[in-house]
Write a structure and sequence with these properties.
The chain is 22% helix and 26% strand. It has a 4-stranded mixed beta sheet with strand order 1-10-11-4. A 4-stranded mixed beta sheet has the order 8-7-9-12, with helices on one face. The protein has a two-stranded antiparallel sheet with strand order 2-3. It has one domain: phage-related protein like fold. The protein has 5 helices and 12 strands.
Amino acid sequence: MPAPVALRNGYSDFFGSSMLPVLEEIFRAEVAMHPSRREALMKVVSWDRDIYQSSELHDVDLFDAVAEGAEYNFKRSKQGANKTLVVAKYGLGVSISEEAVEDGKLDMIGDMVRKLGRSAKESQEIQAMDLFNNGFGSVTTADGVALFHASHTLPSGGTFRNRPSTYADLSQTSLDTAIADFETIFVGDSGIIYHLKPKTLLVHSNSRRYAHELIGSELKPDSMENNMNSLKGEGLSVISSPHLTDTDAWFLLATPVETGLRIISRKPIETKAAGPDVGFASDSIYYKSRYREVVGALHAYGAYGNSGN
């Protein structure tokens, strides 16, 4: 019988620094397997500095009647509040012992790198959902009040709200009320109604099936009557997340470009690796991943929150 040819020493290059591109491929494949919910909810802005600053500009006045031959009135937008978002760095690394490489523990090494990729994606999703988890308290917009508040202020002294007067669990009635609210409550400084339309219903994963029933049933849900379900024609899509800490809370959002919810990305997920030469004292290969970003709320338009009962 001929001697086996697939011996480990026939692949010695794979166990040196040349294994690092393989680890990178494993990492990237794992990251790609976890699509981002947050990018369907928030606008991503690629940025080249460590802070992101935004200054609000409010509406000009409504048009006046202009008599024949008369001069126009010239106005300028009123400046509102400013908001600064500070980029932070997030990262984690793993070390791979020389013995694990020498002994061909490729499955273990690959699994470790896959878990690092999964952790990177989950970390980003959790940070994004914390915007909603803390949106009734510590997360504030440029006017200094909570993202979801009963009285956002305008330069004229007027206010608008982006939460219901009374919180309620998700139901056909509360969702219908919220949609009607959404189309009228977002007003500008001059009284202009923005006529924003909700596009996404964000719920906890526990409520995902019920949310689909509410917006997708042909007939009115939670009713003994065979009335047509008017919510079906609203064009809403459902996004659910297990990272919402309040299982009763739910949110309506306009398109990402119409809201003030931002992901300011200074550096997307990237990896770095070093071979045994750097880890001389511990005989280890070091593999790490990081990203730099900040998730925040610039203004309250286009985002409506209900914390439920």
